[in-house]
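Case study.
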Amino acid sequence: MLLQAHDVGWQLGEVRILQRVNFTVEPGEFVALMGRNGAGKSSLLDLIAGLRRPTDGALSFDDRPLEYWSADDLARSISHLPQMVRADVAISAEELVLMGRYPHAMGWSESDDDRQAARLAMTRCGCFEFRDRRLSSLSGGERQRVLLAACLAQEPRLLLLDEPATFLDIDQQLQCFTMLREEAARGVACIAVTHDLNLALTFCSRLVVLAGKTVAADIPVTTAAEDTTWLSLFSPRLVVSRTPSGHPWVSYA
Amino acid sequence: MSRDRFARRWIIGSALAFVCAAVLLPLAGPAPLDMGRVWAGEEPDWSILVHLRVTRTLLGLFGGAALALAGSLFQSMLRDALATPYTLGVSTGASLGAVVSIALGWHVVAGMPGIWAGAFIGAAAVMVLIVLAAARQRHVSVMGLLLAGIATNSVCAALILLIHGLSGMANSFAISRWLIGSLDSIEQPALLAYIATVVLMAVVIIRQARQWNLLSVGDSWAATRGARVTPLLVAGYTSGSILTAATVALTGPIGFIGLVVPHVVRTRVSADDRVLMPCSFFLGGVLLASCDAIGRVILAPADVPAGAITALIGGPYLVWLVRHRI
Amino acid sequence: MWRWILIVACLWTSVATAQTPSRIVSTSPSITEALFALGLGDRVVAVSQYCRFPPAVERLPKIGTFLKPDVELIARLRPDLTVVHSGPYQIERRLEILKLPFVTVERGSLSSTFSSIRAIGAAAGVSDRAAALVATIEARLQRVRQAVAGKKPQKVLLIVGRRPGTLTDLIAVGPGSYMSDLAAIAGGVNVLSQGGLPEYPRISMETVIRLAPDVIIDAGDMGDRPEQREARKILTEGLWKRQQLVAARNGRIHAVVSDAFVVPGPRLVEATETMALWLHGVGR
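After joint prediction, the assembly is written out as follows.
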C-alpha cells in the first residue's frame, strides 16, 4: 500500500476536525477528495503531507509510519500543492519550478538533468513561455500553472494537490486534470481536492467524500452514476446521469 | 547555463568591488596622504593609513556587509521585502543596552568598552525573549517572530527615550550622538574578532541559501520540500541577530543599508538567495564604507557620521521606490 | 494729601516688589550659576535638570532642560521671574501666554556671559552686584592675560565629547565657541581655527594627529556625577597616552574634572585660570 490512513483523527485546540478517517491509496490511483467547505479536506491533505501530526490514529506511507520518514526522504516522494500561495514572490517562474528539484539536487545548484526535468514540467503545464518572469507579475492562472509544474518537477510518487484548478479557465482546467490522469497512468498516485464534481467524475478513478468529520463515501467513479447516496452529501439539488459517451455527469435539479 | 553565468558574474563582480573598496577607500580622508612617506613607513602617515583609515574602512565594509546580509535574510524569512535587520528587535535591544551603559557610566567591562558589553547583553536578552515569546509548543512561526519583534522594539525604544530624558547633560548628548550611528577607527584585536564573527555567520547563512529560498515562498511550501521550518527560523533569527548585534555594538544603529541594498539587488539582479545574499553582502559593505568615506571628505576636517549619509541616500531611494514601483 | 501718600506708597511697593522678584526659576546651568554668584541663591525655587552647581541645587525641583523647559511645572511654582535662553522651543511665547514674567538671556560666547549676568542683575534688582561681578571676572581674566603675555602661544585641542570609554566619535571645540576665546586668553591657540567649521565639529583621530597640538584638554567624558570624575580622569589620560601624539609623549594631556569648563557662566574664569596653568604653568 502506498498510503494508508488508519483511524486518523485531528483536533485543533478544542475543536475536532477529523475523526476515524480510514482509507488507502495505491500507486496509479487518481483520487478526488471532496466535501463541503469546512469538512477537513485541506487538513487531511496537510496530515498526509506530514505538515501536521494526527492527534489520533496513524498514517503510513510505503508501509512505514509517516513519523519515521525524514523530511528529506518525504520530500523526494511526496509533493504538496498548498491551497494558497502568496502572490508577491519575487522569484522567477523557472526558479520556483526548480525548487521542486531541491529534494533531489544534492549540491549547491541544480544539475542539467534537474533543469531538463523542470523545463519538461513547465512545458507540460503550459508555462514555459513565461519562465523568466517574476511570480508577482503573473496572473492567477499563470501562477497556478507554474506551481503545478513545480509539483510535477519534484517527480514524486504521491501528488497532493489542494484545489489545483483554482484560477484556471475551462480549457486550462481540462489540461490540468488530463495531465494528472497521465501522471496516474504512469504510476504516480494523485489526490486532488476539488469542488468541481464533473471534473472529478470525468478524470478521476475514485471519489472520497468527507462529511461529518470522517469519510462518508469512498467509491470508484464507475459506480458513481448508480450508487447516488454520495450526491446528497453535497446538496439536495443535484442529480447524476450519464452523458452520451457513457460518463457520469452531475446536473442541477 | 546562462543563468549560472549571470549569477557567477554578479557575485564575482560584487566581490571585486568589495576588494577594490578595501584598497581605494582608505585613500579618502580629510587630508591627502603622502604616499611616498607611507611606503617608506614614516610616521604619522603610515600610522594614519594603517591604524586609522584601514581599520575604519574595514569596519565599514564588514559592517555594511553584515547589515545587508542580515537584511536579506530577514526579508526572506519574514517574506517581507521591507524587512530590515532591525525589524526583529535586536538592534533596539542592543541600543538599549548601550544607552544603559552610558547612563550608568560603565567604562570598561571585561576588557572591552562598556558600550559594547552593554549592547551585547541587551541584544542577547532580547533574542532570548523573542524566541521564547514566538515559540508555541516548540513551534516557531514567522508571525510569532514578527509580533514579538514589534513589541520588543516598542518597549526598548520607549525605555531608551525614558533613560535619555532622565539623563544629565553630558550623558544626554552622548546618547543622542550614539543613536545616530557612525564609524570610527577601532583597535585591531576587536576588528579581527568582529570580522571573524561576520565571516562565520555569513558562511552559516549563505550555506542555507536554498532553504531561505523555500521559506520565502511559504512555510508549508518549504516544509514539504525538505526544510525543517522551526529549526531553520531559529537558526536564521539567531545568526541574523548576531550579525546585527555585533555591528550595532560597534557602530550604533546605522539605518537603510539593511533595507536598501537587498531590495536593489533583488529588483535588479535576482531574487534567488544564492545570488542575492552574496551580492548583498559585498555591495552592502561597499555602500557603507563609501558613505563613511563621503562623510570624511565632504566637510573636512569636520567628520559627518556615516549614519547621516546613509539616511540621506536611503530616504530618497525609498521615495523613488514608492513612486516608480508601487 | 494722605490719599496721595497712599497712592505713591502703593506704587512704590509695587514697583519695588516688581524690581525684586523673590521666586526665580532658572532654565540652564549657566543661568543658575549666575544667579547664585549674584547672591540670589535663596530666591531660586527651581532649576533645570542639567544643573549641578552649586551642590545646593540638587535638592531643588527640576523643570526640564534648556532645550525643552517644562512650562507646566514652571507655572505651578508661580515664579515672579523666569530666566530663559532663546531657542526652538519658543519658551518665551508660552510664558507670555501664561503671563509669567521672564527675561531672555544669550548664551554661548564670552560677551554673552557678561551680558546675561547684567540682564539677570537688572531683572532681579541687583544691577550693582552684577556690575561688580562682571568687573571681578574681567579683572581675573586680565590677570591671566598678563601672566601669559609674552609667552609663546601653545597649540591646544579641546575635546568636549566622545564615545564613553573610547577615543572615537570625537567632538572638538571649533573657532566660534567661547572655549576657543578662553583658550586664547590663557595663552593658547585652538588648532581648529579654519573658517567655516561648525562650533563643535566632529573630527577623526587622523585630524588630531595631523594638527599635532602641544596640549590636549579633554572634557569629553566627564559624565554627570562629580564623584566619578577622578576615576574617569585616570582612564581618559590612559587612553590618550597610548596614542602616537606629541602631546601624549610630552605628558601634556589634561582630563577635565570640573564642569566649569563646559558651563558658559561665571566660573569660566576658573576654567581659564586652570588652562593657563596647564598651558604655561602660571597661576594659582
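Observations recorded in class. Chain A touches chain B at residues 46, 49-51, 71-72, 74-76, 78-80, 82, 85-86, 88-92, 94-96, 99-100, 102-103, 108-109, 112, 134, 154 (CB under 8 Å). Chain A is about 30% helix and 30% strand. We will return to this complex in the next lecture.
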